Amino acid sequence: MIEANSFEKLKDLNKEQTTKLFLDLALKESKDINSNEYTQELIKFTNLQSLKLNLSCCELNFEQLKDFTNALSQLNKLQYLKIKFIENVLVESNFQDLADSISKMTDLDTLNLNLDEVNVGNNSFAILGQGIGNCINLKNLKIVLRKSQIESDGIQKFAEAIEKCKQLQRIDLDLFENKTKNEGVNQLFQSMSKLSNLNILKLDLVKNELNSAAGQLIASHLPKFTVLKELHLQLRENTFSCQGTSDLFDGIKDLKNLQVLTIGLTNNDIAKQGAIAIANCISSLNQLYNFTLYFNQNKLLEEDMKVIRSGLSKVLNLTNLTFYFNGNNINQQFADKYILSISKIRRLVYQDLHFQ
């Protein structure tokens, strides 16, 4: 783990020999930060390959943020970049500066941007995507954009831009409580399906105004994800319903190399049809060893749970199982027997089942 550095310590470091740096300003008040002074020191690290920059809660103004993004543009040997901007106010020109800086990082392997609850907006998100799209060697991308007022057209433009990152192996997008809608999620999966090296995909689309048709839209693109090994989808508090859930799992069963699957569909009015789709899907995933399902607050009955149990018994390599079925029509006596029956699946080495 890289040790966090204060400004005083920054000045004492050997600029030419340092390749990894963690600059943490989260505990300093904005009035105490001379951004120009920091950035003048930062650009002296001419061989820097890894940078973690925590600007959370600093309440930096427009010019201070501009100083930091301008400094980043001069660190052209970076391979790893992680920035936290939580609780800062970024305007469109800040995103343009950040995108311009990122676009010059042609050696970048890993990019991690945390913009939690920053009001990004559609145009700014599209601009950011254009900068990332120039990182032709990028393999790992993580972006947190919770409650950022992003709508479907912003998602679409961002998705089209990252199609250029042909080396991407891992994508982790946290878009909790935005307005992706069906149009946005369709373009997102269409663009990602063109990334032939993608093997890990994590998406948080909780409260994104998706309806039952979104399941079929996602499923229509999944056959192209031929090397995908891990899929994590958080979709709770949309309106998928049984039909959307059934369509989604019908698509997932085509992911023949899938080893890890996490699906969150809490509070989506799912009943019998959804249970049948789950059972059919997992019984066809021969490489699956880790399965996590969040189905809290739906409309499953005890007979539906038996269907899922039947599907589980056919998964050849399943060793890890986690279920959340709180808030369905299942009594405790049945739950106890069900947990016992699951424990008899000999391949399982770990199980964690929740019914209450």
From TrEMBL:
Record keywords, A-Z: Kinase, Transferase
GO molecular function: GTPase activator activity; kinase activity
Domain of life: Eukaryota
InterPro entries found in the cross-reference section: LRR_dom_sf, RanGAP1/2
PANTHER family in the cross-refs: RAN GTPASE-ACTIVATING PROTEIN 1
Protein name: Kinase domain protein, putative
Source organism: Tetrahymena thermophila (strain SB210)
